[in-house]
C-alpha cells in the first residue's frame, strides 16, 4: 500500500502530515511512502531527510497518481480534488459538518475519505486524535503570543523600582487548548481565571491552579466529551458572571467551540469597549467564526486600545512539534485501519465508524 | 529463693523490657526479639535447675521431655507455616499459653488453697486462662477459614452477660468457701471456655488481629496472676508488661483501623463502614495506612510512582517530590511512570511535576517503563485510575479496551492512593484495586503523601 | 474492698511493682508504627509464655505419684513452651522483612 | 522647580520617563511638572491622564523653555540639544563612556547632565538604577520573544501523540537580564543553562534552577559589580566549554555587556553555522555591538536555519511596566538630589558623584 | 506503716509518673506540674498526720512553722523573680533539696547506724546531698553573675581527683567502722561541699543548665537513698524517677546543644566550637533549634516570614510554603515580607514563591509590612541578611546606609536561619543577629525548614 | 559484691522497684521537645524535694529535747519545702508561655 504525503496549500500553514521519522516507522511496517517535493520544508524537514528515511520524493502530480492513500493536514481543496481518482483514500481534517460541499465533491469522485477531526473522544482513540494534539499546542502558543503582544509582563514582581502587579488572564473554554493555556499562563506567574459551559471542567481548571468562574448551568449538558450549543439564557448568565473579570483582564484567550457549528460568540463588541486599555484578546476560534464579535481571522483588530487577534495559526507556529505529533496520530490511525499492511475496516468499531465519512463515493455521515 | 535465681529473674525481666522497647522500632525489632528470647531461656533454665527441692529424676526427665516436644513442635510450626498464615499462628500459640495457665491453676487448686488471696489468684488464673484458650482457638479458626461465617447467636447479649455473671458468681463463691471442689472447678473451667467462645464468635474476621491482641493481653494477666501465686517476680512483671503493653497495642491497632475498641467487640451489631463505590463482586480490597506503606517503601530497592489526575486535583505535586527526594536519600531508586493520557490534558503530569522541580530525567515514558515493573518492589499509584486499569488488556467490552496502560500489576507490591473506590474518567471499575498485591491507601493525595513523608522521616 | 486494703498492706512492694510494670508496659509501646503492630503482638505473645515458669514449678513441686498433677503439669509445660518457642520464632520470621538493603 | 518630560524620539521607543502616577507624587512633594504633548501615548498614558495628575501638557518648545530639569529615557540627541539652554539640568541615560561627542555637546551648551546608566551598583542605589529595572524586563521579554519565534514549545510533554522533549535554552551573561531570562525560561519548563565570566554568578544561576557552565577563570575579576573585558584566552576557553550546549540549544539569549565598551563577541558566525536548524538567538547586547557576530540591531538575520534577532526593543515592548519602573527610578533619583524641592548635591556622596557627568558645562567624567 | 499512708504514697508516686509524663508535651505540661504538685502535697500531709508515734505538740508546731516559713519564702521568690532569672532559681532550689538530704543524713548518722546497709545509705546521702548543695550554689552564682569568670585552679585535675578519692575512702572507712564519729562526719560533709564546688567551678556559664540538670538528678538519687533508709516508697520511687529522668534529660540537653556530656564537664579544657564569622565584639549570639523555634511559632498569633537570597540558594521555596500552610492550619496568621532587593534579581523572591504556589495575597511589600512588625510575635528570617540589617538605619559608614530595610527588630521574637555568621551581599556585619530578641537557627534553609515543619506536625 | 548480693536477697522487691522506676523515668522523658527541657528540669527539681518527707520523719522521730536534731530537722524541713513549693511554682510560671491562643 502506497501512502502519499501532500504539501499543504493553505496560507500560513507550516505543518506537514507525516514526518520523516514516522514515515520510517511506517515503512518498517511494510508501507510504501511518497512525499511531494518540499512538503516538509516549513517544518524544517528537508527532502533529503525524507529520502534518508526511505521515502520517495516526487512531484505533486506523481504523488496523486501513485498513492492509494493521500494525507493532508488541512481539508482537501478544489485543486486537490481535481487530481483525486476513484478508489483513493483521503485522510485529513475535513470538518465534514461545516463542509457539506467538500464532502459531496469527494463522493462524486467515488473516493473514500476519513476525517481526523471526527475522532471520537474516547480514551483509546486519544493517540489518533489530532484535535487533541494540535489544540494542546495551540493553547500554549496562544499564551506565548499574548505575552508577546502585551505591554505588561505576566508575573508579580516586587522590585526596588516598585511593584509590578501580576497580569490577569481569562480563558474561555476549558477544553484541551484552554487547559494548556491555563497551565502556560499560570507557569509564567499570571493570575488565571477560566470559564466553561461544561461543569466538570471546574475541577480540571482548578487542578492547574486557575480560578473557575461558574455560570449557573441548567441543562447545558455535554455530549460525548463535547459541548452542546448554549441557550440564550446561558449566554446572558455567562456575561454577568464573567464581565467583572473580563474588564480587568490583561489577556483573554478564547477557545470555545461546538463541533460542527459556528463557534459561539462569547465577547460582544460592547464588552470589548469596556475592557482595559492595552488588553489583548487571542481568539483561537476565529476559523469557526470566532468567540469574539470583533475578531477577524488572521488579523489584528484594535478596538479602543484592545488588541483582538483572530488566529488559528497558533499550532502551525510551533510547526516542528505540531508536525511530529500530527504524524504520530496519523501513524496510529493507519495502524488502526490496517492489518499486515492492508486496509481492514471494522465498521462496527467506533473509531472507524465515526471517522469514515465517505466510503467509495457514498456519504456515510453528515 | 536463691540469690542467683533472683538475679536471673531480674535479668530476664530487664531483657523483657528492653526487648519490648526495641520491638517498637523497625531497625532494632529483630534484636529486641532475640534479647527477650534469651532472657526467657535464662529464666526457664534457672527455674528448672536452681532450687533447693529434692526432685526425683523422673520429674526432670518429664520436664525435659515436655520442653523438647513443645520446642520442636513450636519451632516446626513456626518455620513451616506460610508467611500469610502468621497471624492465626500467633493466635494459636497464645491460646496454648492460656491453656497452660489454666492447667497450672487446676493443679494448684487441688493443693494450695490456704488463703483467700491464694484462692483468688488461682480461680482468676483458671478463668482468664480458659477464656484466652477458647477465644484464641476461635480466632484461629476464623482466620484460617475453618470458621467461615459470622455466627449469630439468638439473644446473644443476654446469653453472654448471663454466662459472664455466672462465672463471677461461681468464682466468688469458690473463693469464699475456700475448699477444693472438683465440680465447681470444672464448672468454672467450662464457664471460662464457653465465655471465650461467645466473646470471639460474633466478631468479624477483619477485626481478628485486634481480638488476638486483646486475648494476648489477657494471657499476660493470667501469667502475672500465676506469678503472684508463686511470689515469682519474672512471671509477675513479665505478665503485667504483656498485659499493659497488650492493651495499649490493642487500642493502637483499633486506631490504625480507624475504629474504637468497643466497635470492634460489638462491631457485629453495628453498621459496617463500607467504602463508597467498592464492588463486592470483584472480591475484597485491602486497606493500608501511611505507616505501613512508608515502611514498605523504606525497605524497597526500586519504587515507581504513577501519578494521575488525582495528584493534580489534590495539588500534591510538591509533596510527591518531597517523597521522591526522601526515598532517594534513603537509597531507594525512584522513578515516575508517566502515562501519555494521565490527567486531563496532554502533558498534565509534566506541568505538574515541573512545577515542583522534579528532575526531568526521572520521568519515564510508558513504553520505557513498562518492562521495568517486573523488578520493582513497590508501585505507588497516586490519584491514577484508568491509566492502570487492566480492563484495557482484558475486557473487550470496556471503553478503554485497546488503550495501552502502565503494567503496574507486574510489580511486587502496589499501593494505590485515592479518596474512595469511585471510578475515574472512563467511569469503569478497576480490578487492580482488588488484586491481592494491591493495598489501598485512602485519602486525599496531598494529605496521604504528607503522612507518608513524615512517617519516612521518622524512620 | 477490705481484701484489697489487706492485700496492699501485705504486699505494698508488690503493688508498686505492679503499677510500675504497668507504666513501663504502656510507655514502652506508645507510638509505634503500625507495621510493627503484628510483630509486636507476636513478640508480646511469646513473652506471655512466661507462664511456663509456673508450669515448671508445678512439675517440680509435684509428688511423682500424683499422676493427675504430673499429667496436667506435663501438658502445661508443653503448651507453655510451645507458646514461647513458637512465639519467638514466628516473630523472628515476621521481622525478616525489615532487613536493611545493601 | 519645574521638571519637563520629553517625548522620546528614538525609533521603536514606547516608553516615557515619567508616568502620571509618579508625576502626581512629585507634585505632592512640591515640584512642578510639564509634559510634552503625546509623550505617554505609546505607554498607554493619555494626555488627560497627565492633566488629571496635575501636570501641564505643553508643546515641545514650551517644555524646553520652561523646565529647569529635562527628563528623557534615551540620550538627548542633536535636535534636543538645539533647544537646551545654559543652566538646564538634563537627566537620562547618556552612556557617556561610549558617547564622548554627546557629552562635549552638552558641556558646550553650559548645561548640567546626570547619566542614569552611571548609577553605582550599590544596594542603596538600587531604587534609582534604571539599568536594573529595565534589564530585568528585557530578560523576561527576550525569552517571550524567543518562545514566540521558535517552532518548538518549551516544556516537556508526554502525550498520547508522543513525547515532546523540553527546549534547551542557553543564557550568556548572568546579570540582571540574564537572571530574569533564566527564571522565565525555567518557569516555562525549558532546560536552562547559563554562563558568565563572573564566578559568583554560578550560585545565583543555580538558585534559579539553571545549570551553570563554568569556564576556567584566571584573573578575570569583576569591578564594582560589573564585568571586566575578557582576555582572548578566556574567550577561547569559554567557547570550548559552551559549544556543546550551544549546538544543542533551541533558544540562546545573550546579555553580556562590559560597561562603557563594545559588547564582547561570544558567538561567532562559525559557531552559528553549527547550531541546530530552527534555533533562535536573541541578542540583547545588539545596541552595544552584539554578543553574536552575525546579529544586526533591530533585524532578524537567518543563517543556515538559525534566526538571530538583534534587539534592545525588549524592555520597550513591555512599555507599560517599563515606564512605571523607570518613572519610579527617576522619582527616587530626584528625591535623592533635592532637599525641600531644590537641588542640593553632595559631591562627596557616591551616587551624586558618579552620575553627575557634566556640571555647568564642565565635564567631570569620561 | 498504716495502709492509708501506704495508699497515699502509692497515689503520690503515680502522680509523679503521670505528672512527669505530661510535662513532656507542651499541651499538657501545666496540668502535669499541677498533678505532681498535688501528689507531693498529699504525701507531705500524710507523712505528718498518719503515723502511730507519740509526738509532742511542740514538734508539730515546729514542723508547721518550718513548712509555713519555707512555703512562703519559696512562693515569694518563685513569683517575684523575673522570667529571665528562672534557671538560676531552679539551681538554688535544687541546692536546698540537696542540703535537706544532707541534714537528714547528719541527724540520722548520730542515731541509727545499726547495719552496714544503713550506714551506707546515710553516708552516701550526706555526700551526695553536700555535693548537690555546694555545686548548685556555685551554678546559681555563675548564672546570676556574682561568679563571673571561669575560675582556673592550678592542677585542677589532680586536686579534683584527690578530693574525690579522699571522700570515697573516708566514706568507706566510716561504713566499715560503723560507729558515730562527729569528726569523720563533718570531714565527710566538708569533702562533699568542696567537691561540689570543684566540680562546677570550671564549667562555663552557657553550660550551666546541663550542670543543673545533672545536679538535679543527683538530688533525686539522694532522696531515693533517704527513702531506702526509711523504707519509704514514695521517696524511693520519686527519687529514682527524678534521678533517671534527670540523666536522660541531661543527655538530651547536651544533644540539643550539640555537645556531649563529657565535653560539658571537661569543656573548659577543650577548644570551644566557634561559629565561623561570629564577631565577639558585637556581643553574643543565641542559638536555637528547630524544636524551640517551632514551639515559638506554634503558640504565636502573628508570624512574618522574611525570605532572602539564601532561600533561593537552598531551593527551599517548597518547604517554606509547607511551613506557612501548616502554621495557617494551626490558626497562626502568616505573611511574607518581601524586600524589594531581596535575592539577586528584581522579583527573585516572587519567582521563587510563585513556583511553590504561595498565594500572592500573602506577599506584602516592605512599606506595607513595616508598620506590622510591632504586633508580630515571631519573625522568621530565612537566608536574608542585608535586607534586615539595621546598619542601614544606624551606621552612616555602611555601604547600605540609607537603604530602606525591613524593621524586623520591632517584632517580639526574631528567628534567623542561615548557615553561618558569614556576611551577605554587602559583605558587612549584621547587628540584628546579636540582638537579645534574636535566636539563630543555623543550617541550610531547606534542612532547617524541613525540621521546623516536622516539629510543627508533631505538635 | 557480696554486700550487693546480700542486699538483693534481702530486698529483691525493692530492687525490682528500683529498676522499674529507672525504666519509667527513662521512658517518660524520651524524646521531649527541647523547649520543654528547662520546665521539665524545673519540674523534676520540684519532685526531688520529696526528700522533705524524710525531713519530716526526722522531726517526728526526734526527742523534743534533742535540740541539735530538732534544729537540723527544722532546717531540713524548711529547705525541703522551699525546694518543693519554689520548684512547682517556678515550673508553673515557666509553663505560662505555653498558653494556647484563642
Ligand atoms: N491526558 C489527557 O489529555 C486527557 C484528556 C481528557 C481525558 N483524559 C482521560 O483521563 C483519564 C486519565 O487517567 P488518570 O488515571 O490520570 O485519571 P482517572 O482515571 O480520571 O482517575 C483519577 C483518580 O484520582 C482519584 N482522585 C481524584 N481526586 C483525588 C485526590 N484529591 N486525592 C487522591 N485521589 C484523587 C479519583 O478517585 P477518587 O475519587 O476515589 O479519589 C480517580 O479515580 C483517562 O481515562 C484519559 O483518557 C485524558
Ligand atoms: N534583588 C536584586 O535585584 C539584587 C541584585 C544584586 C544584588 N542585590 C543585593 O543582594 C542583597 C540581598 O539581600 P538578602 O538579604 O536577600 O541576601 P544577602 O544579604 O545576600 O544574605 C543572604 C544570606 O543567606 C544566607 N544563605 C546563603 N545560602 C543559604 C542556605 N543554603 N541556607 C540558609 N541560608 C543561606 C547567607 O548566610 P550564610 O552564608 O551564613 O548561610 C547570607 O548571609 C542586598 O544587599 C541587595 O542589594 C540584590
Ligand atoms: N478521553 C479522550 O480521549 C479525550 C481526548 C481529547 C479530548 N477530550 C476531552 O474532550 C473535551 C473537549 O475538548 P476540546 O478542547 O476538543 O473541545 P472544543 O475545542 O470542542 O471546545 C473547547 C471548549 O469550549 C467549551 N465551550 C463550548 N461552548 C461554550 C460556551 N458557550 N461557553 C463556554 N465554553 C464553551 C467546551 O465545553 C470545551 O471545553 C475536553 O474535556 C477534553 O478533555 C477527551
Ligand atoms: N547591588 C546592587 O544594587 C546592584 C544593582 C544592579 C545590579 N547589580 C549587580 O551588578 C551586576 C551586573 O549587572 P548587569 O546585568 O547590569 O550587568 P551587564 O549588563 O553589564 O552585563 C551582563 C552580564 O554579562 C556578563 N559578561 C560580561 N562579559 C562577559 C563574557 N565575556 N562572558 C560571559 N559573560 C560576560 C557580566 O558578568 C554580567 O553578569 C549583577 O551581578 C547585578 O546583580 C547590583
TrEMBL record, chains A, D:
Tell me the InterPro entries matching this sequence.
AlaDH/PNT_N, AlaDH/PNT_NAD(H)-bd, NAD(P)-bd_dom_sf
Instruction: Name the catalysed reactions.
Output: NAD(+) + NADPH + H(+)(in) = NADH + NADP(+) + H(+)(out)
The answer to whether the entry has keyword Lyase is no
Q: Which SUPFAM superfamilies match?
A: Formate/glycerate dehydrogenase catalytic domain-like, NAD(P)-binding Rossmann-fold domains
Q: Where is the Alanine dehydrogenase/pyridine nucleotide transhydrogenase N-terminal domain?
A: 4-138
Keyword set includes NADP:
yes
Alanine dehydrogenase/pyridine nucleotide transhydrogenase NAD(H)-binding domain location: 147-310
Q: What is its EC number?
A: 7.1.1.1
What keyword terms does UniProt attach to this protein? NAD, NADP, Nucleotide-binding, Translocase
What is the enzyme's class at the highest EC level?
translocase
Fetch the PANTHER family from UniProt. Answer: NAD(P) TRANSHYDROGENASE, PROTON-TRANSLOCATING NAD(P)(+) TRANSHYDROGENASE
Its annotated function is as follows: The transhydrogenation between NADH and NADP is coupled to respiration and ATP hydrolysis and functions as a proton pump across the membrane.
Q: What is this protein called?
A: proton-translocating NAD(P)(+) transhydrogenase
Automatic annotation (TrEMBL), chains B, E:
TM spans (from-to): 6-24, 33-51, 57-77, 89-107, 119-138, 158-177, 183-203, 210-230, 236-254
This enzyme catalyses: NAD(+) + NADPH + H(+)(in) = NADH + NADP(+) + H(+)(out)
Tell whether NADP is among the UniProt keywords: yes
Compartments it resides in:
Cell inner membrane
Classification via Pfam families: PNTB
Domain NADP transhydrogenase beta-like, by residue range, is 7-454
Name the enzyme group at the top EC level: translocase
Task: Report the membrane topology from the UniProt record.
Answer: Multi-pass membrane protein
**Enzyme Commission (EC) number:** 7.1.1.1
Question: What is the superkingdom listed in this entry's lineage?
Answer: Bacteria
Keyword hit for NADP: yes
UniProt xrefs under InterPro entries: DHS-like_NAD/FAD-binding_dom, NADH_DH_b, PNTB-like
Query: What exactly does this protein do?
Result: The transhydrogenation between NADH and NADP is coupled to respiration and ATP hydrolysis and functions as a proton pump across the membrane.
Spell out the family assignment given in the record's similarity comment: Belongs to the PNT beta subunit family.
What protein name is recorded for this chain?
A: NAD(P) transhydrogenase subunit beta
According to its UniProt entry, this protein's organism is Algibacter agarivorans
Automatic annotation (TrEMBL), chains C, F:
The name of this protein is proton-translocating NAD(P)(+) transhydrogenase
The domain of life is: Bacteria
Q: How does it sit in the membrane?
A: Multi-pass membrane protein
According to its UniProt record, where is this protein located? Cell inner membrane
Q: Which reaction does it catalyse?
A: NAD(+) + NADPH + H(+)(in) = NADH + NADP(+) + H(+)(out)
- What is the organism field in this record? Algibacter agarivorans
Keyword set includes Transmembrane: yes
- Transmembrane among the record's keywords? yes
Among InterPro entries, the record links this protein to: NADP_transhyd_a_C
Per the entry, what this protein does is: The transhydrogenation between NADH and NADP is coupled to respiration and ATP hydrolysis and functions as a proton pump across the membrane.
Instruction: List the EC numbers from the record.
Output: 7.1.1.1
NAD(P) transhydrogenase alpha subunit C-terminal domain sequence ranges: 16-100
The residues that cross the membrane are 12-29, 41-61, 67-91
Keyword tags: Cell inner membrane, Cell membrane, Membrane, NAD, NADP, Translocase, Transmembrane, Transmembrane helix
Amino acid at each position: 500500500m502506497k501512502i502519499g504525503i501532500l504539501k499543504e496549500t493553505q496560507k500560513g500553514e507550516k505543518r506537514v502530515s507525516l514526518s520523516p521519522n514516522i514515515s520510517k516507522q511506517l515503512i518498517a511496517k511494510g508501507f510504501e511512502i511518497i512525499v511531494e517535493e518540499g512538503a516538509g520544508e516549513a517544518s524544517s524537514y528537508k527532502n533529503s531527510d525524507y529520502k534518508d528515511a526511505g521515502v520517495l520524493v516526487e512531484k505533486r502530480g506523481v504523488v496523486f497518481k501513485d498513492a492509494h492513500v493521500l494525507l493532508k493536514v488541512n481539508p482537501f481543496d478544489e485543486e486537490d480534488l481535481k487530481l483525486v481518482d476513484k478508489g483513493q483514500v483521503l485522510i485529513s481534517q475535513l470538518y465534514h459538518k461545516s463542509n457539506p460541499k467538500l464532502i459531496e465533491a469527494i463522493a462524486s469522485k467515488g473516493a473514500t475519505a476519513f476525517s481526523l477531526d471526527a475522532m471520537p473522544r474516547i480514551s483509546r482513540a486519544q493517540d489518533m486524535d489530532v484535535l487533541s494534539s494540535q489544540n494542546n499546542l495551540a493553547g500554549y502558543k496562544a499564551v506565548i503570543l499574548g505575552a508577546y503582544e502585551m505591554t505588561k509582563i505576566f508575573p508579580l514582581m516586587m522590585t526596588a523600582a516598585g511593584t509590578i502587579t501580576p497580569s490577569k488572564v481569562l480563558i474561555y473554554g476549558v477544553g484541551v487548548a484552554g487547559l494548556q493555556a491555563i497551565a502556560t499562563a499560570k507557569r509564567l506567574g499570571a493570575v488565571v481565571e477560566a470559564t466553561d459551559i461544561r461543569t466538570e471542567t471546574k475541577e480540571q481548571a482548578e487542578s492547574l491552579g486557575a480560578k473557575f468562574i461558574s455560570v449557573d448551568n441548567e441543562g447545558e449538558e455535554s455530549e460525548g466529551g463535547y459541548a452542546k450549543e448554549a441557550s440564550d439564557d446561558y449566554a446572558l448568565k455567562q456575561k454577568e458572571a464573567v464581565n467583572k473579570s473580563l474588564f480587568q483582564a490583561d489577556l483573554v484567550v478564547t477557545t470555545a467551540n461546538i463541533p460542527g457549528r459556528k463557534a459561539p460568540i462569547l465577547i460582544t463588541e460592547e464588552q470589548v469597549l469596556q475592557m482595559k486599555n492595552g488588553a489583548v484578546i487571542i481568539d483561537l476560534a476565529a476559523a469557526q467564526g470566532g468567540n469574539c464579535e470583533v475578531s477577524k481571522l488572521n488579523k489584528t483588530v484594535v478596538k479602543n486600545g484592545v488588541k483582538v487577534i483572530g488566529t488559528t495559526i497558533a499550532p502551525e507556529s510551533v510547526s516542528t512539534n505540531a508536525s511530529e505529533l500530527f504524524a504520530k496520530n496519523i501513524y496510529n490511525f493507519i495502524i488502526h485501519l490496517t492489518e499486515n499492511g492492508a486496509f481492514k475496516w471494522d465498521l462496527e468499531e467506533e473509531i472507524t465508524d465515526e471517522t469514515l465519512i465517505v466510503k467509495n463515493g457514498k456519504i456515510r455521515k453528515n | 529463693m536463691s540469690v542467683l535465681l533472683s538475679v536471673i529473674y531480674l535479668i530476664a525481666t530487664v531483657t523483657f523490657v528492653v526487648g519490648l522497647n526495641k520491638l517498637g522500632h523497625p531497625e532494632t525489632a529483630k534484636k529486641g526479639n532475640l534479647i527477650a528470647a534469651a532472657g526467657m531461656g535464662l529464666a526457664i533454665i534457672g527455674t528448672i535447675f536452681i532450687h533447693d527441692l529434692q526432685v526425683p529424676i523422673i520429674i526432670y526427665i518429664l520436664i525435659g521431655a515436655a520442653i523438647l516436644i513443645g520446642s520442636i513442635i513450636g519451632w516446626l510450626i513456626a518455620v513451616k507455616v506460610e508467611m500469610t498464615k502468621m497471624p492465626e499462628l500467633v493466635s494459636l500459640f497464645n491460646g496454648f499459653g492460656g491453656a497452660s495457665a489454666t492447667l497450672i491453676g487446676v493443679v494448684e487448686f487441688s493443693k494450695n488453697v490456704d488463703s483467700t488471696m491464694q484462692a483468688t489468684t488461682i480461680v482468676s488464673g483458671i478463668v482468664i486462662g480458659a477464656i484466652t484458650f477458647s477465644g484464641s482457638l476461635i480466632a484461629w479458626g476464623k482466620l484460617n477459614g475453618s470458621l467461615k461465617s459470622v455466627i449469630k447467636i439468638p439473644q446473644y447479649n443476654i446469653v453472654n452477660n448471663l454466662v459472664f455473671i455466672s462465672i463471677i458468681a461461681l468464682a466468688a463463691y469458690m473463693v469464699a468457701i475456700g475448699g477444693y471442689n472438683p465440680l465447681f472447678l470444672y464448672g468454672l473451667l467450662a464457664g471460662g471456655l464457653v465465655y471465650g467462645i461467645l466473646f470471639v464468635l460474633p466478631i468479624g474476621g477483619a477485626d481478628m488481629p485486634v481480638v488476638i491482641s486483646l486475648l494476648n493481653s489477657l494471657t499476660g494477666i493470667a501469667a502475672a496472676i500465676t506469678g503472684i501465686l508463686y511470689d515469682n517476680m519474672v512471671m509477675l512483671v513479665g505478665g503485667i508488661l504483656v498485659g499493659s503493653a497488650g492493651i495499649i497495642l490493642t487500642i493502637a491497632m483499633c486506631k490504625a483501623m480507624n475504629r474504637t475498641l468497643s466497635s470492634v467487640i460489638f462491631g457485629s451489631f453495628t453498621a459496617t463502614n463500607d467504602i463508597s463505590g467498592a464492588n463486592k463482586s470483584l472480591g475484597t480490597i485491602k486497606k493500608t495506612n501511611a505507616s505501613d506503606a512508608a515502611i514498605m517503601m523504606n525497605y524497597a530497592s526500586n519504587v515507581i510512582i504513577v501519578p494521575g489526575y488525582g495528584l493534580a486535583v489534590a495539588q500534591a505535586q510538591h509533596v510527591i517530590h518531597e517523597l521522591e527526594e526522601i526515598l532517594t536519600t534513603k537509597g531507594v531508586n525512584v522513578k515516575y511512570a508517566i502515562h501519555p493520557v494521565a490527567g486531563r490534558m496532554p502533558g498534565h503530569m509534566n506541568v505538574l511535576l515541573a512545577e515542583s522541580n522534579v528532575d526531568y530525567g526521572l520521568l519515564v515514558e510508558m513504553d520505557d517503563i513498562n518492562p521495568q515493573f517486573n523488578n520493582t518492589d513497590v508501585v505507588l499509584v497516586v490519584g491514577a485510575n484508568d491509566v492502570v486499569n487492566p480492563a484495557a488488556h482484558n475486557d473487550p467490552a470496556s471503553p478503554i479496551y485497546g488503550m495501552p496502560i502502565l503494567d503496574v500489576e507486574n510489580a511486587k507490591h502496589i499501593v494505590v492512593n485515592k479518596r474512595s473506590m469511585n471510578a475515574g474518567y472512563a467511569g469503569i471499575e478497576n480490578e487492580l484495586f482488588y488484586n491481592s498485591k494491591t493495598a489501598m491507601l485512602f485519602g486525599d493525595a496531598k494529605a496521604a503523601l504528607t503522612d507518608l513523608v513524615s512517617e519516612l522521616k521518622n524512620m | 474492698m477490705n481484701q484489697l486494703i489487706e492485700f496492699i498492706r501485705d504486699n505494698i512492694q508488690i503493688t508498686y511493682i505492679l503499677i510500675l510494670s504497668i507504666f513501663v508496659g504502656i510507655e514502652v509501646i506508645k507510638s509505634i508504627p503500625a507495621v510493627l503492630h503484628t510483630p509486636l503482638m507476636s513478640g508480646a505473645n511469646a513473652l506471655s509464655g512466661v507462664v511456663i515458669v509456673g508450669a515448671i514449678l508445678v512439675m517440680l513441686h509435684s509428688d511423682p505419684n500424683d499422676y493427675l498433677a504430673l499429667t496436667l503439669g506435663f501438658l502445661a509445660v508443653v503448651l507453655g513452651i510451645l507458646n514461647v518457642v513458637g512465639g519467638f520464632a514466628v516473630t523472628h520470621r515476621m521481622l525478616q522483612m525489615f532487613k536493611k538493603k545493601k
